[in-house]
Design brief:
The chain is of the alpha/beta class. It contains 16 helices and 20 strands. Helix 3 crosses helix 4. The structure holds nicotinamide-adenine-dinucleotide.
Length: 500
């Protein structure tokens, strides 16, 4: 069956374009998919435009839209293992992690279905006789949804669920490296009876398909998750027609450890913060910022445990983390470490590919710790998106001075996605958390999120918010309707003829 879904029809690319997807863990072939041309991306936008302008989806009662999303969540829960297997093969991530992702995704669809169920406008009481005034919600229109490869279906669910809940139509483009779960999603929506043209799927590269989805005048909103450089391009491409833009970009996330922290817990979480999914997590704790008095103790333990992490493929039950997504990405991470060493960082563990012959066909990189790092170094400022943590230290003669020093380092980045603070002092925890300029702050924890709470970046980590109530707001317009039941002349200007 062909993989492009445009205007309710599954089709192959007109130029016969395909791409073979390989598992990053061992290079085995996962499948071959059809890839769209730029013209097909524009045809998908036209189909979504027609479906939005002619309906019926935008005016379908929101409880009915909610019911479809609940049914989608049920299907995913029922087919969880099969979809998790597709995701694990495309990304190389551990099957158990992909299973957890599926549980999260079920929760995301149910969350937005619940919001749609209770999506009501409000009456504005003007206190003026004969006038009624109300705010109603309307969908934004045609949405271009563009997602990355690290959490393919999760990132997609954060966009598709609110877009559908609010009554929009969309064109979806997953990363060219990880298309299979997006195909499952759109097939399932089709089977569940979503009206023709509401969901459209185009696979292919960002430069052709993605670019057409961002500059086409038929698009009202572009929601993008991916790298900072691509995000800047998308914002520029969307500007001439003033599209709404939601961007979830990269992070250089500080993980701040004070000497008064529960150190075993802080160290254990510092490992999860950076080595989960081999660091290919936007909120990865890639900057460990440690109080000087406990630096040696923390770093020695971090290095010891990083050196023990077992690498392996999706179905290797002993594996604790997996490969990088591609050979190109592996080269970038390797170059990042080499540059860091060249600029003075001390490589304490990792820094290269493993020599285990069983891993030779995959894109593996060893968990890596770089010590002696300073804010002005590139390795502290640039996202590596690999299993590499930089260590910086801070100190202060007084309580205030230590906190000021930690906060100054943690905020010294163009990014602002997420961060954590570790301390047993509750007052300090609150003070520091309040001062960190990052969109999500964990206190004595790392990585958890819930769909009920907003997710989004400060500074150059993004524009707009996903999840929570704000997630739905991104996909709808609030329209104020003022109804004067006693129309009369406005009376601002004299009618000179009458006056004469
Ligand atoms: P990327 O920017 O290379 O690609 C993301 C998507 O954009 C892909 O589908 C790609 O094909 C498409 N694309 C590329 N060029 C395009 C263009 N000119 N026009 C339109 N689309 C284009 O990112 P990636 O390598 O797939 O993902 C890794 C990045 O994603 C990291 O920087 C990571 O921090 C970020 N990320 C952020 C979040 C978040 O919530 N903030 C979540 C996950 C990943």
């Amino acid at each position: 069956m062909p993989d492009l879904f445009i205007d309710g029809t599954w089709r192959a690319a007109s130029d016969g374009g395909t791409r073979t997807i390989s598992c990053p863990a061992d290079g085995s072939t996962v499948g071959t998919v059809d890839e769209a041309t730029a013209e097909e991306a524009r045809a998908a936008v036209s189909a979504a435009r027609k479906a939005f302008d002619a309906g019926p989806w935008p005016t379908t009662p929101s409880p009915e839209r909610a019911a479809l999303l609940f049914r989608l969540a049920d299907r995913l829960a029922a087919e969880k293992d099969e979809v998790a297997r597709l995701e694990a093969l495309d990304t190389g991530k551990r099957f158990v992690e992909a299973q957890i992702d599926m549980d999260d995704i079920v929760g995301v669809f149910r969350h937005f279905a619940s919001l749609a169920q209770s999506d009501v406008g409000r009456v504005v009481d003007t206190g003026m006789p004969g006038v009624s005034s109300r705010v109603v919600h309307e969908p934004v229109g045609v949405c271009s949804l563009i997602t990355p490869w690290n959490y393919p279906l999760l990132q997609t669910s954060w966009k598709v669920a609110p877009a559908l809940a609010a009554g929009n139509t969309f064109v979806l483009k997953p990363s060219e490296l990880t298309p299979h779960t997006a195909i499952w999603l759109v097939r399932t929506l089709d089977e569940l009876g979503l009206p023709k043209g509401v969901a459209n799927l185009v696979l292919g590269s960002g430069a052709t398909v993605g670019a057409a989805m961002t500059d086409d005048p038929g698009v009202d909103l572009v929601s993008f998750t991916g790298g900072l450089v691509t995000g800047r391009r998308i914002m520029a491409a969307a500007a001439p027609t003033v599209k709404r833009v939601a961007l979830e970009l990269g992070g250089k996330n500080p993980n701040v450890v004070f000497a008064d922290a529960d150190l075993p817990a802080a160290i254990d979480n510092a490992l999860t913060a950076i080595f989960l999914d081999s660091g290919q997590v936007c909120s990865a704790g890639s900057r460990l910022i440690v109080e000087e008095s406990v630096h040696d103790q923390v770093v020695a333990e971090l290095v010891r445990r990083a050196g023990q992490i077992r690498l392996g493929g999706p179905f290797d039950e002993d594996a604790e983390t997996g490969p990088l997504i591609s050979g190109d990405h592996l080269k970038k991470v390797q170059a990042y470490v080499e540059n860091a060493v060249a600029e003075g960082a001390q490589l304490l563990v990792g820094g290269t590919t493993p020599d285990d012959p069983a891993l030779a066909d995959g894109h593996y990189f060893l968990p890596t710790v770089l010590d002696g790092c300073r804010s002005e170094m590139r390795c502290v400022q640039d996202e590596s998106f690999g299993p590499v943590v930089t260590v910086e230290t801070f100190s202060g003669d007084t309580r205030e001075a230590a906190e000021d020093a930690a906060v100054a380092l943690a905020n010294d980045t163009i990014y602002g996605l997420a961060g954590a603070v570790w301390t047993e002092n509750a007052g300090r925890a609150e003070r520091v958390a309040n001062r960190l300029r990052h969109g999500t702050i964990w206190i004595n924890d790392y990585h958890p999120y819930v769909p009920q709470a907003e997710w989004g970046g400060f500074k150059q980590s993004g524009v707009g918010r996903e999840l929570g109530l704000a997630g739905l707001e991104e996909y709808r317009e609030a329209k104020h309707i003022w109804h004067n039941t006693k129309p009369a002349k406005a009376g601002w200007f004299s009618d000179t003829k009458e006056d004469a």
